[in-house]
Amino acid sequence: MIPLDVVIVPDHLAHFVLERSAVVVIDVLRATTSIAVALHSGARGILPIMTVEEAIRISGNMRRDGESVLLCGEVGGLPPEGFDLGNSPREFVPERVLNRRIMLKTTNGTVALVRSQTARYVLAGALVNLSAVAEFLHSHLESDSLDRILCVCAGREGDFSLEDFFTAGGIVDRLQDLYRSRFDLGDSAVAALEYFQSHRDNPLAVLEQSRHGRVLKGLGLGADLPACAAYDSYPVVPLCGSEGWIEKAEI
Amino acid sequence: MIPLDVVIVPDHLAHFVLERSAVVVIDVLRATTSIAVALHSGARGILPIMTVEEAIRISGNMRRDGESVLLCGEVGGLPPEGFDLGNSPREFVPERVLNRRIMLKTTNGTVALVRSQTARYVLAGALVNLSAVAEFLHSHLESDSLDRILCVCAGREGDFSLEDFFTAGGIVDRLQDLYRSRFDLGDSAVAALEYFQSHRDNPLAVLEQSRHGRVLKGLGLGADLPACAAYDSYPVVPLCGSEGWIEKAEI
């Protein structure tokens, strides 16, 4: 049986050897949702960046090289001055992002993506691409002799986040459907799966109850929540490639 | 509203200022269960210790001073050579522990207890003393102006553990009963509470499903699970005092 675990916060990744693992990084509110939406809308690639300064520096270099790059992301939920777009999935429409490269500065999702980079596959998972991600994992499990699947909750400033836990449970649920009784579920996967199954009919309520969801509402970004809660609305598989760029995987 | 959070693994304690907090450390399998049983059986105090060497050294010093001390605990689930007792709650009967001091070497519970020590109150919580711990917190919440309650899951080697998550949810449940709508629940407290409420009628099944429970069964220690699952069977409040000794609090 293949181990299938949920890592509640990125710090725990230190406990795992990742070389033959597939990692799904989950930051539903909102980085991994926005990444899926942007790729589905035709963006060429997304580079997650840790700091505003680094995002400005790298995008400046790329622009001097003649690249058409968008500077996107948030600090405290809102886009910093000089950025082209924030971190709202509603902004990543084809009219803005088609054929563009995107630098994405986010808080929690970027940390999780960077810590996962030694894995065989690093995917960006969200509710909007839940089934596509599960199907990709399913199709690569045997052909690439993966020895473990990890769903990594980006969390919130190092702490547990309800919406990522719920979504991790959703990936476990989809994988179990595809591959019944093939997985050895860790304790956190058992708990996340149950939480997902209890609330699967109302993902929006989970996002609204979460602390992060309430913060976004307070910032006037409440309209992002239904966009982030819509199952399989952007069926794309964002895959981290060389040099950290996330591109659309062939399914 | 007073924040009530569940800390999924002891590492996260670093994110909190604890001076005016009450912390309940939970290591159901088996350290905090054994601590509650030992105090209920008349032990004078328990000192959690990180290493076998330190446990042997300190108990040797105490014996030279004429103290009657028991050396107890486990490495990999079993008592090291030369120890008087292991870490099974079934061993801490009055015939063995009455009026004795106990050095307890355990893996996960000790780490969590040591990391919590700057808190205003540090309690050892388990299923066997769930209501007693909740009642103690309730009675001290206002009189001591506590600004936060944290249930800290000892976890398993830094990772999530199902039985501690369940028990943390049980403490949240009992506190909500006593103090309805007075708490601001963190995301992890919401999830743990739900998990507890779904399984409250069969705590033994939770322990049996958990990874740690399965390991104990494999070591021939399966009879510990029903002992650890028995709600309120040892209604005592283990309270960390000066120099790290855990003693029975007055309720």
Rg result of chain A: 17 Å
CATH topology of the largest domain in chain A: putative 2-phosphosulfolactate phosphatase
Q: pLDDT below 50 for ≥5 consecutive residues: which ranges of chain A? A: none
The neighbouring-strand order within the major sheet of chain A is 6-2-7-1-8
CATH level-4 homologous superfamily of the largest domain in chain A: ComB-like
CATH hierarchy: architecture of the largest domain in chain A = Alpha-Beta Complex
Order of helices and strands of chain A: EEHEHEHEHEHEHEHHHHEE
Report on this structure.
- 2 copies of one chain form a homodimer.
- Chain A is of the alpha/beta class and 251 residues long.
- The first copy, chain A, folds into 2 domains: 2-29 and 110-239, putative 2-phosphosulfolactate phosphatase; 37-109, no CATH class.
- Helices cover 39% and strands 19% of the residues of chain A.
- Chain A contains 10 helices and 10 strands.
- The first copy, chain A, has helices at 31-40, 52-64, 94-97, 108-115, 130-141, 162-178, 187-199, 203-209, 211-218, 224-229, and strands at 2-7, 21-26, 45-49, 69-73, 101-105, 121-125, 148-153, 183-185, 238-240, 246-248.
- In chain A, strands 6-2-7-1-8 form a 5-stranded parallel beta sheet, with helices on both faces.
- In chain A, helix 3 links the parallel strand 4 (69-73) and strand 5 (101-105).
- The first copy, chain A, is globular and about 50 Å long.
- Chain A starts with a strand and ends with a strand.
- At the A-B interface, helix 7 of A face helix 7 of B.
